[in-house]
Amino acid sequence: MSPDSQMKPHLFKHFALELRGLLFYCASWIVLAIVVGALSGSASAFFLWALDQCTNTRLAHPWLLALLPLAGFAVAWIYLKYGTSVEAGNNLLIDEIHDPKKMIPLRMAPFVLGGTLVSHLFGASVGREGTAVQMGGALADQLTRVFRLTQENRRILLMSGLSAGFASIFGVPLAGALFGLEVLAIGRLRYEALFPCLIAAVAADQVCLLWGAHHTHYVAGVIPALSVWTLTATLIAGALFGLAGMAFARSTHALTAALKHVFPYSPMRALAGGATFALVMWATHADRYLGLGVPVIVESFQHPILPWDFLAKGAATVWSLASGFKGGEVTPLFFVGATLGNVLAPLMHMPIGLFAALGLVAVFAGAANTPIASAVMAVELFGGEIGVYAAAACVMSWLFSGNTGIYKAQRQGDGKWRHRHTLPAPDADPKD
Predict the structure, then answer these.
(1) How many CA atoms lie within 13 A of 363 on its CB side?
(2) Hey, what domains does the chain have and what are their CATH numbers?
(3) pLDDT at residue 9 greater than cutoff 70
(4) Residue 414 in 3-state DSSP?
């Protein structure tokens, strides 16, 4: 018998073993990811419904803003008494993925849900992504013990929970899948979790929709044909979006540290911060900067708005988060980006709708260091024609936003760029 004929059964057996292992891997993670998606999508659907109820109640009763300091004090006291193990929120999830230590307590989900609803009921300027991501991660981690997962598989499960939460709260399954891979480290993706994150994100989005949840629809309008000027203008705007994202992230971290120094007792920090915020909002009649601010985001796609909207919303959100109010940063970042794009568009002779759309995704790309997920989100929200513009704006924003972001637990991967000498020094030997 020839050597070739002897090798064929061996190769076939090896291929059969690999195929069986791959099928088992796919089947196992399909089941796990669908369970994660169902849990996260259901939680997000309830959260979106409850958030609408809180927002409508606040709009119907503007006097609720006066109770914001007491509401903040109560939530901070509950967290201090019973929720210190989950107060780190998104950063706790990212840390556990990098360095697994102990399971995420299930209490993270109801704590952040209740805290965020209170924030919105009384008018704090916060978002919703943090809540959905934390609920997704906390619910997903409960499956670790049920299925007796290894540490590596637990990491993948947590990443799936992050993806599911992000996808279901915004209705962007592809961006959600990439968010869970991209948010962990700057300049590095975790491809081993790509399949589970994709399945979990798609499942969560579909389950959320089956529950009757609705997502805001933004219209970018006519997308101009690509030209030298439109691409140049997009790159310039992308750099400015990145600087805005960096300013938001660094301001949030700096003010949080300052207020913690002044008010070491967290309930008192929320009380003082809430009182200051409510007084300023009441004195300036700045209702448009309370809560999510979705109506202003929608408005920014349609016609010119107040040129200081992006600054005011950024300041309101930084103060709210630094004071300790629960929620998230992403929707306020959408607000900052869309309104900044609205201001930049006429200055660069570009369509307002296009630049509002680019700002919406690009400021988030820079602040969260997630350019790929953000560009894909633009395509999911606004259609394929915006793809090149969104990619250019998000990458430029990411480059110009520095090496910090809204998530302090985010690690340094391969970084963003490295300075290399491309020309020899004046006194160097050309042969060297």
Answers:
(1) 29
(2) 19-210 (1.10.3080.10), 228-412 (1.10.3080.10)
(3) no
(4) coil
